[in-house]
Amino acid sequence: MEKADIGLIGLAVMGQNLVLNMADHGFKVAVFNRTTSKVNEFIAGPAKGKSIVGTHSMEALVNSLQTPRKVMLMVKAGEVVDSFIDMLVPMLEPGDVIIDGGNSNYPDSARRTVYLREKGLRFIGTGISGGEEGARHGPSIMPGGDPEAWPLVKEIFQSIAAQVDGEPCCQWVGQDGAGHFVKMVHNGIEYGDMQLICEAYALMHHVLGMDCDAMHEVFKRWNGGVLDSYLIEITAEILAKKDTDGAPLVDKILDTAGQKGTGKWTGITALDLGVPLTLIGESVFARVLSSLKDERVRAAKVLGPRPSLRAPTDIDACVDALRDALYASKIISYAQGFMLMKEAATEQGWDLDYGAIALMWRGGCIIRSTFLGNIRDAYDNNPDLENLAQDEFFANALKATEDGWRKAVMLAVAHGIPAPAFASALSYFDGYRSERLPANLLQAQRDYFGAHTYERLDSPRGKHFHTDWAGTGGKVASTTYDV
Prior knowledge:
Elements: E1 6-9, H1 13-24, E2 29-32, H2 36-44, E3 52-54, H3 58-63, E4 70-73, H4 79-88, E5 97-100, H5 106-118, E6 122-129, H6 131-137, E7 140-145, H7 150-160, E8 163-164, E9 167-168, E10 174-175, H8 178-206, H9 212-222, H10 230-240, H11 262-273, H12 278-290, H13 293-303, H14 315-348, H15 354-360, H16 371-381, H17 392-415, H18 420-432, H19 439-450
Parallel strand pairs: 1-2, 1-4, 2-3, 4-5, 5-6, 7-10
Antiparallel strand pairs: 6-7, 8-9
């Protein structure tokens, strides 16, 4: 019997669809699931007649594979991945490959790469984006780990990935945890994109008084311009969806958002690396605040309703301002995300290709958009670009949308509509382009109460001073360091 090209463990929705995708592209796949009845159901159902082999034990899965064996895990991130790896190690031979395709935290992938290398095995930790539909018809795939493993899976991964302009949305990202790191940043940007869209929706609904049908038309129109993206497209479709009684379905959904951790990891990593990832951080906190539904209901009774102001009469102008705010804030979100990747690459010794990363995100994934082609162009023009906001295309876009952006934030503030992502993006923009910030006063405060010292404008960088501000502290200063 001909042996399989690859094995996959974990037949939840993503796992099943990836297997079907592989089979469609001419690869023979062996599958296993801890609940073996799920294997039987899959083989008798969606996999019937395809080059997919069901197995009822991990030993049988491993034995069904051609060498070097390639085993892909599509299981819950964390300890479950480690437990499967520990079970697989004794069954595999030097040179075989274990692939983790779940949403693992990148330090875990770095650790697993080292651990398996010591055992003579190869490891790939790969981010996969696109959800159920992407997995079935072409996701964005972001592999990292052991570079020696990449040639063994390259053909499979690039065949099943989404294709844009004839190029696969899958390229080798980098060693150790680089693949899952880039996927984590992708998910953080996804949090930001979704929050920005929700803020535009809230302002249209609560301030401009637009119903779902009118908002559907706006988002549909936006999807034909600079905001052309998967998330804008599905937002238009969501707003058009009616419940069984003919009312908009979205109006009946409870306003509490869930999360699975990748946005939180992105924010924590940004704090660890000292990167001002303000918009994504606010997007994570907005989900946390939404989860306090019962408390918010009680607070509304104590604190009263939002300001009662007359709705603006220039609806079209306000909608245009919201478009500008959404576009400008989106630029800031991606600028911050790429800043984080650049800092992590320096810290970890990764050689990340930012233009290639933008290309990988142009198709298949949740944040896919036309906009990403402009990001690729920016890094093709200048691989050492400090910040996307300094690229000519994006700098001009930010300047062109600034007035509408400010109008949208003022509209939110005046009417009591929370818009933390719009506002934090604008604050970052204003801070980033400021030659002088009030941190001079902050540093004086630190020196006053803690003798933390300061630098002077009229002295070389790196030379530190301390002042006895109150006349009682003496000349002893604290050591200088940054966390």
